[in-house]
Amino acid sequence: MQEGNRDKAIGSVRAWEVVVAACFLVFGAIVVWDSQRLGARWGDEGPQAGYFPFYIGIFIIVSAAMILYNAITSGAKGRKPFVMWEQLRTILVVMVPSVLYVALMENPWLSMGMYVPSALFIAFFMRFLGKYGWLRIAAVSIGTTVAFFVMFEIWFKVPLPKGPLEAAFGFA
Amino acid sequence: MQEIHNLMGGFAVALSWFNLMLMLAGITLGVIIGVLPGLGGANGVAILLPLTFSMAQQPGGATSAIILLSCIYWGALFGGAITSILFNIPGEPWSVATTFDGYPLGQKGRAGAALTAAFTSSFFGALVGVLMITFLSPIVARFALQFGPPEFFSVYLLTFCAFVGMSRGSPFKTIASMMLGFALAAVGIDTVTGQLRLTFGLEVLLKGFDFLIAVIGLFGIGEILLTLEEGLEFKGTRARLNMKVVLETWKELPRYWKTSLRGAAVGCLMGIVPGGATPASFMSYGIAKKMSRDGEKFGTGVVEGVVAPETAAHAAGTSALLPMITLGVPGSPTAAVLLGGLLIWGLQPGPLLFTEKPDFVWGLIASMYLGNIVGLIVVLTCVPLFAAILRVPFAIIMPVIMVICAIGAYTVHNSMFDVWLMLIFGAMGYVFKKLDYPLAPLVLALVLGDNAENAFRQSMLLSQGDMRIFFSNALVGSITALSLLLLFWPLISKVIELARGKKLRPPPTEE
Prior knowledge:
The structure holds 2 protein chains of 2 kinds.
Chain A: H1 13-38, E1 42-43, E2 46-47, H2 51-73, H3 76-79, H4 85-105, H5 115-128, H6 134-155, H7 164-168
Antiparallel strand pairs in A: 1-2
Helix pairs in contact in A: 1-2, 4-5, 5-6
Chain B: H1 2-14, H2 17-35, H3 41-48, H4 53-57, H5 61-87, H6 96-107, H7 111-144, H8 149-166, H9 171-186, E1 188-189, E2 196-197, H10 211-229, H11 243-252, H12 257-272, H13 277-291, H14 304-319, H15 321-327, H16 333-344, H17 352-356, H18 358-389, H19 394-413, H20 416-434, H21 440-463, H22 474-487, H23 489-499
Antiparallel strand pairs in B: 1-2
Helix pairs in contact in B: 1-18, 2-5, 2-18, 3-5, 3-10, 3-16, 3-19, 5-6, 5-7, 5-16, 5-18, 6-7, 6-14, 7-11, 7-12, 7-14, 7-15, 7-18, 8-9, 8-21, 8-22, 9-21, 10-19, 10-20, 12-13, 12-14, 13-14, 16-21, 19-20
């Protein structure tokens, strides 16, 4: 945002409107198709399983078609940028580590549970965005995680997934 | 008066030390949740809901649990005003109108006056809302006891049509978002026939989509992503709130009694209707601007401009609970989450609740009075503390909120799949918000989908597939007619405007 000329727009509002409306169209079609498969008519014992969702699907298709029409015929409003590259970059900086964070919790190789990835996640952002010293990073990330541990495992007795580190301390 | 007697019984339940402590904890937590970006009333309550499972198992525990959760809701409502006035960030959609005059007041160095006015009028609005609940809800509940499936379906229909009629954006986007909610609610095992719907052989989809996950993702993660766009820092006014400022503002407030009363009336009326809080706050602001002697000064920082939207928003936020406890039809996403809580604790919201669990209902209503008093005291005394939370650097607060959301999503069903779903809903919430798709109809449809479908099926069974059952008597007929009127309201209002020969005004944009 600081350097206007280097800041590219990622798609126009119109383009994204069309994409989302198309997704709705496809989704609506899936719902209608699945309802047809189950039977969307009047069975021997009353309405069949697809009776209600069938109409839901129809409604989705009709409204998505209208949104699509409105998006295509929208004038200047549709040409507005949807998101600037600089903004998208900040969002990806959060989303990509978040995906990694969830992947670390449970995967076929080394599931680390809820707590260790949480501490790593907080530490990553403190280092990457906040540029804090390692001592403060350790204090905040480990402190927060331990607080969560005490609150959930001991106080409220709501067990969260645990990995090898917790097992080493005798919590399974 | 039976109601007064019941209410006294309710106070006896709510006024235990344990419950008072829960109120204090709930309000404080609620204000913090309301102040933090990415945590609002709805997903704050959704995240904490799993923690109340064990609490609700004990005798009388369900009442304590609802007191805790509803106090978080009141706290979040109060908290929204703090961010609006000090940081120009509306914490909730209905705080948008508060920024119009609240933020300029802060810029003028009168943040204290703005905050005092906001809190006091919130309190007043809530009080009027609770009074209405106290006296109106037993009547509504008694009335609703005679409801059959067609009546219930027509009430659901009214709920959803109200969203279309009241939305300020494209009605098609409201419908699309709502129907997406219904479709997601249908995923999983059909309760009537036992058939699998929309699962495509995927085992993870058997359980269906839990709306709590949707709430945490859409409102939590989605909100964080939107905040990120704005940049990574909050720039705000300093808050100083001492007794002198409070007392001075209180001296000024009685002057605006007309504005307050109008705001409360608008709020109560609109609050019963789903999605009413946001339009109520704008409407109250608009009416106050038109009726006030200082109307043209609105927007430059006048106390009256804070009083009007805050009273209405709180009155509406409170009365949104009326249809939730009497009919089982929540009026807002947060009310929907509270309803979800009731179901999880094994209580069936609806007319029978008043006769079967009077302790619970009246304990809840009494706690609304007490909670708001506690809330007013807490926010008036601790504003600097809460404002300081927003000064915690974003690099710390953001990942901590993400972690809280992830834990919250996991604890709903102890399922890792839900945490992934939360991320997907988060990305979806971001795109939807950017394109002005409303999220509240989606959440409410997801909550009410099964009930609405069952009511529809039972009605159809009664009438052997004849749609005219929804017009079969005066009651159900008038509710259905009103729903259809609301559904086609965007169309009707356009026709009226065209008939008057006015040029079509572009719809007011969000924020």
